[in-house]
Design brief:
It is a single chain. The protein is 17% helix and 25% strand. It is an alpha/beta fold. Helix 2 crosses helix 3. The protein starts with a strand and ends in a 37-residue tail after the last strand. The protein has 5 helices and 16 strands. Strands 1, 2, 3, 4, 13, 14, 15 and 16 form an 8-stranded mixed β-sheet that branches. It has a 6-stranded mixed β-sheet with strand order 5-6-9-10-12-11.
Amino acid sequence: GTVPAPDPTDESADGPTPDATTPTGGAPEPEDADVVTFLQVSDLHCNIGMAPVIRRAAQLAGASAILDTGDTSINGTAVERVCVEAFVDAAPDGTEYVLTTGNHDSSQTADQARAAGATVPGGDVVDVAGVRILGDRDARETRLGAGTVQAGEEDPDDQAERLATAACEDDPDLLMIHTPRVGAAALSTGCVPLQISGHLHRRIGPVRSGLGTVYVSGTTAGAAEGQLTIGPLGGVAQMTLWRFDRTSRTWLDARVIVVTPDGTVEVGAAGRVPRPVPEQPAGPVTVPEDGTDGTSVVPQLPTSSLDGT
């Protein structure tokens, strides 16, 4: 069923949206609009019970691609191939699956997804249904019992600067990155209009940040804090529908899908994506530090100096 868009000041809707002035209700589309739809999922953490739900949502929406903003697995291991394959296989025929891995994933997770047929950007721009997407893996890795460490030579700040440079060189329509704060530098340049992320397990935005817009998805795993995700939903699961006009290269609106443990599915009203305002750039959105306000869908992990979840 259709429900009203969440009140941006209502903290019961999986956390407050930090911009209460974000307009809702899309304006009429131009007659020459060429609109494509995407379905965003995030922080699935191996809850393969959501795979048929994702598939049905993509079918009903006519999604050209499923955009997975990471933490598809729990620990990035070889045995979690079954989870990765289940999610990639959930994409209907003709629907692409795009994954940017999170801190609970690994290079092995990325390889598993590619082998299953997914597109996994590695810091480059890929064309997905005529939309230019800049994506990259998370700069950190979190392992059960071992905490969070830097995954490679780059720390998150180094990665943020590299992605900002890439955005200005390659002119993307979208930035996909698991950890929200990593995209702040790119948004501040005005070279990318929209960033989508996950990681915090609660929804934020879409809200203006820098010269663009940032959005943080709630978890699609539907787990309660401190509980493993495999099995029936322990909490609310969320997905997001995005529409993009390929003629004007403009993001039109976002619509949140909420699935509750009792099996109820609610599709929110379309909320218009804020338009960039170069003359009056907004400051970067203050996103909670990792592991402070965000909930965890896995047992509490030891924290490192990076405070990853």
